[in-house]
Predict the 3D structure of the following.
Amino acid sequence: MIPFNAPPVTGSEADYMHSAMASGKLCGDGGFTRRVQQWFEQRCHVPKVLLTPSCTASLEMAALLINIQPGDEVIMPSYTFVSTANAFVLRGAKIIFVDIRPDTMNINETLIETAITEKTRAIVPVHYAGVACDMDKIMALAEKYKLYVIEDAAQGVMSYWKGRALGSIGHIGCFSFHETKNYTAGGEGGATLINDPTLIERAEIIREKGTNRSQFFRGQVDKYTWRDLGSSYLMSDLQAAYLWAQLENADQINQRRLALWQNYYQALQPFAAQGRITLPTIPTDCQHNAHMFYLKLRDQQDRDQLITWLKEAEILSVFHYIPLHSSPAGLQFGEFNGEDRYTTVESERLVRLPMYYNLTDNQQKIVIGSLLSFFS
Ligand SMILES: Cc1ncc(COP(=O)(O)O)c(C=O)c1O
């Protein structure tokens, strides 16, 4: 069986986890956490990176940090993971869904302005498949209407928009290190990127259960107290140790994924040229991280046939994201602005192929062989 995903393994994870254990400090903000945070601060040119238990937790932190209140509106695509919306719904916000662009499956930046009202507080672009949203247009709108931009860069670690790291462009960025992502912190994990320096102090407080404990540990205050709303948004140092092993090989992981992506693309290109399938578009301003390889078939029926065909060949492929606006919670907490021209139909014809760092050349050849026989 060729799985759809396998968590990346580079070889030094166990050693680093042992050394975290030997350090006698396993809770958050230990040595590995600091190393990983600094690595991202330097790589992404971000003033503050805070490791968290998940991207879900990072999005929740972001909603607290920008003071989302009941009745506020938050704009995002409907074609996304539930956490993008939940984080803001938990604070009482109403979600305003905007249609996607079919070429990248990202929020259509030209439709955002019509969704902005007096209640709008934030725009949440989701960089689907690690391919950037049009951040110039989105940041310009945010500036014009004084809105926050929270980048859901769960899939965008080590991707760039005009040379800038995804997650580093909006006021706050959120990464995921879940085992399905390019780099994992031992199964679960996330990071909050604080790009607006005025938010740093409060971000540390929210992450430390609403206390100024971070300042206390740095010797900046002589006791710590309850200052604000907060929760426990720290990652265990054992997980940070696992993640460190991956980051030491970050470029190698990225290159391998890009090579696998390219192999799929080249093999399927002839069918795209015949108009039988649609392949992902990478706009020229984006440098992507090959987070996922997807193709789109003619319709849902064709897509499901391909999934069944691959399954019979013991290859697991998946589709995902039932659009949020038509799901029970989406109907309760959100509203689609304008016409759903692409969100539903495009999501129904999309399928994701096995794509992970440790996928071997041989395994990929088997997948490609099965795809070729399906299309012939
Ligand atoms: C777009 C998007 N946002 C948020 C998340 C949530 O990430 P996590 O599992 O780290 O909480 C995911 C995870 O799949 C995602 O794809």
User: Anything to note?
Assistant: The pocket of pyridoxal-5'-phosphate is lined by residues 54-56, 80-81, 83-84, 126, 152, 154-155, 176, 178, 190 (CB under 6 Å). DSSP finds 13 helices and 13 strands in the chain.
